[in-house]
User: What shape does this take?
Amino acid sequence: MTSLTRLMIVLSVAILPGFAMGHDYRVGDLHVEHPFASATPATAMTGAGYLTILNSGTEDDTLIAVEADYPRVMMHNSATVDGIASMIAMDGVTIPAGETVSFAPGGLHVMFMGLDGDPLDVGESVPATLVFEKAGRLDVVFKVKNADSQTAGAMDHDAHTSH
Assistant: This one.
């Protein structure tokens, strides 16, 4: 076996675990899975992002902020009370020890506000930083995918919330 062949094997073994994990991130005891955002129409002022956070530790942690290159980025929770849907701004989202919290259409989500004619297009990436109270900062990328029927209703927040 040549030195070059050995080097190729070593590099392949070192790189493949990253590809196998795909679109996952870790900081401390927190594992963030598959951040994605829904594609938006050209006229949208806001877009929504989703992800799953697993806490394998023995202490709760709290997601206290999401930072991205938009005029405003917030965490919201969708709620329906007596048939009326509303969006509730969240100052933080606790990730209990040993549990998983999902940001998903119809529930918790990240709002990217101020798109101003620059829609989230399929295939685009939205770099962001998740800020946790204990684990610290974690850079992630939200991959933009087609909006499905569940997500489409979550896009127009301006008509439902005061900011």
Remarks:
- Residues 64 and 92 are 4 Å apart (CA to CA).
